[in-house]
Design a protein that fits this description.
By secondary structure, the chain is mainly alpha-helical. It has 13 helices and no strands.
């Protein structure tokens, strides 16, 4: 956090025109003006320097405070000691920061913002230890560590000549992340709605099946009762023909519809019979053909398949 703290603290002292209390002037006229103000009113200079020193003490951790705390300390001395604690041994610090940047993985962050901000922080720290990174290296590191969901945006960024700035890449990736989150949210809501609709349709279908089965049962029972009543009424009013046999239509029997029987769908069976099969298969057409055809040879006597011949 030193880089961010130092940048914000420099803004604070510039607002009050006290930046020379932590950073010694380098220009000749600035050095002369600062020395003249210090000699003109030493009490005012000491009070202003104590104010800057108090801001430093109030904005750092307790451990750092104990490390830089000295009697009759000045703001410039405290600032220099803090800077040396975080920016000394620049070569070794740059090496460690480079390794951290290489090993950085998006899976350890919760969003594009946190991932990009950490990369930017490492780049700033490298700049502080005199090892700045060029923009192309930052962009390539940013895009190569992203998951597969960002592959479309990554292709667009990497195929540009020259590569866009780091801030522009971060903005594009933020929009891509927002689009992916909205898509996943819509997919989740669609899945929940589909599941609820499926459950509702299943319940309605179950209720419809129950109502249909109940209606079918009641109608079947009703039709069965009507048939029994009709049959009984017709049996009571039956008549006989001249031979003493019951007339089929008067008895309530309708002609049998052979086309609706299950064996009507078995034509391969019928093709295997050299001669017409006996009843109950439909034999009306065969009977007509046999009646029209001349009889070959004497008629055989004896019982038939269904008993004695008439």
């Amino acid at each position: 956090m030193y880089h961010s703290w130092a940048a914000l603290f420099k803004v604070l002292v510039r607002v009050h025109d006290l930046h020379h209390h932590i950073i010694s002037p380098t220009e000749a006229h600035d050095v002369a003006a600062y020395a003249a103000s210090k000699v003109a009113d030493p009490a005012l200079w000491k009070r202003l320097d104590a104010a800057v020193l108090q801001w430093i003490y109030e904005t750092i951790s307790t451990d750092l405070l104990h490390a830089i705390l000295l009697k009759d300390n000045t703001a410039l001395g405290a600032w220099a000691r803090l800077e040396s604690m975080f920016q000394d041994n620049k070569a070794s610090r740059a090496t460690h920061l480079e390794e951290e940047l290489v090993d950085l993985n998006f899976e350890n962050f919760s969003s594009i913002d946190s991932y990009c901000n950490h990369i930017k922080s490492l780049a700033d720290q490298l700049a502080d230890v005199d090892a700045p990174l060029i923009n192309s290296r930052l962009v390539l590191k940013l895009t190569t560590g992203l998951p597969e969901a960002f592959v479309g945006t990554v292709d667009i960024i990497q195929n540009q000549e020259p590569l866009p700035s780091f801030a522009s890449c971060q903005s594009r990736l933020q929009l891509a992340e927002w689009t992916i989150k909205n898509y996943l949210a819509k997919e989740g809501n669609f899945g929940n709605r589909s599941q609820a609709a499926l459950l509702m349709s299943t319940d309605n279908h179950h209720d419809t099946d129950n109502n249909t089965s109940a209606s079918s049962t009641s109608s079947h029972q009703s039709s069965k009762g009507n048939k029994q009543k009709k049959s009984n009424s017709k049996v009571s009013g039956k008549s006989c023909n001249s031979n003493g046999q019951v007339a089929p239509q008067q008895y309530g029997l309708m002609p049998f519809n052979w086309q609706q029987q299950p064996w009507a769908a078995w034509p391969p069976w019928l093709a295997q019979w050299p001669n017409p099969p006996p009843c109950p298969y439909p034999a009306s057409s065969w009977a007509l053909k046999n009646a029209a055809a001349p009889t070959v040879g004497p008629r055989q006597s004896g019982p038939g398949i269904l008993g004695s011949r008439p």
